[in-house]
Write a structure and sequence with these properties.
about 300 residues, alpha/beta, Rossmann fold, 6-stranded parallel sheet, 3-stranded parallel sheet, about 40% helix, binds guanine
Length: about 300
Amino acid sequence: MVAKIIDGKAVAAAEREDCKRRVARLRQAGGRSPGLAVIMVGDNAASAVYVRNKIRACQDVGIWSEQLFYPATVTQSEICDKIRECGRDPSIDGILVQLPLPPSFDLEEVLGAIDAEKDVDGFHLYNVGGLVIGNTVFPPCTPYGVMRLLEHEGIEVSGRNAVVVGASNIVGKPMALMLMQREATVSVCHAKTRDLGEFTRLADLLVVAAGHPSLISASMVKPGAWSMWASTGCPMARLVGDCDFEGVRAQASYLTPVPGGVGPMTVTMLLVNTIKSAERALGLVPGAKAAEPMPAL
Ligand code: GUN
């Protein structure tokens, strides 16, 4: 068997065309483009690459971005004040705080300062809670992108065994919740999992976001499995996935490459969430509560 390589770039490009149409509709309806505030603290090289890609993608579809870059010496209260100011600014629809923050920052407090109605990363506890009950407004972008790729390929996950390798708040945990919501039987493996291959070999769908290059060898993949790889925590100079690509390719039925698989979808789903936020603010989405902002935590 040779796996079909899922072209995340092509799926992302099609989704971005749809984003452009939605932005045009918003301009007609509300007279303004959606806005995204991008906050970065410090000079983490990987974060700088991610943020640059996000800003470029915004420009590409007509979302304007306010770039708020701070040195690592900035205080947490300055950052939280700025985040709250963005929350009050009607021209800003999405607020993104690029992670990681410097170690001295209290992550929960910073994320809690984001207006949950503008939490386009889906990291605020309000949206995390929504995800747990299967009804979040802003699904976190990387797992959301994986779900969109599965949908695009017509892969039905209901009743399948899904194994997620990596239990981060950004990817692994929300991924598991989204798959559970779609009726998969989900196992989550992490750094302390013993006999990782015993789990991964059970997977019809294997999602790897562990940040260890070549963690998964071909012998750890069930023949015919669908394998999705997110390149978390890898050195940005040379983007690599968590897999023995050629070995797994000979074993799986679908495989996402790194780069060009899940990565472009992550950025694209951020655009989708930002546009959705603007549509909600204008009351263009059924069920949106534009006049009732969620409480800040
Ligand atoms: N750092 C790594 N991935 C992400 C992400 O999806 N969003 C934010 N804000 N920071 C990240």
